[in-house]
Amino acid sequence: NLGFAFKTLYLRDRQTSHLEAAIEAYRAALNEWTRDRVPLKWALVQSNLGDALALQGLREPGIAQLEQAVKAYRAALEKRSQVPLDWATTQQNLGVTLRALSQRERSTARLDEAAYAARAALEVYSAAPLPKDRGQVAAFLKELDEFRRKLADDR
Known about the structure:
155 residues, mainly alpha, 85% helix, globular
């Protein structure tokens, strides 16, 4: 997949042009791999698009790219439920992106959404022999609680 290749290049060299090319390639793939024709591939591309948009959103000020990432993850979740571990990974990535939005917006509502997504991922990981993933999500939930306390203290 061309999008994956560009995203991998970006992760190595941090050149924004590679990330932009990945996003463009994922969007082009969605024209070919449609939701109705190949739903699981479509969901995979939506999730990968979400990853690339989230990376771009973390680099840039504002929230537009992060909101687009959330939209892509939520679209992917509609079909990824057929593959529980992929669904859980997408939920986890959605949670991380929502946390970033909550930090930028200083929003407890986004924080609640992030915690919900993380707990949903943890449920799936708890049923599978994946202690690393369970540990990552549990640590993430602790971070969310700490940020919630910080938000409350700031108000």
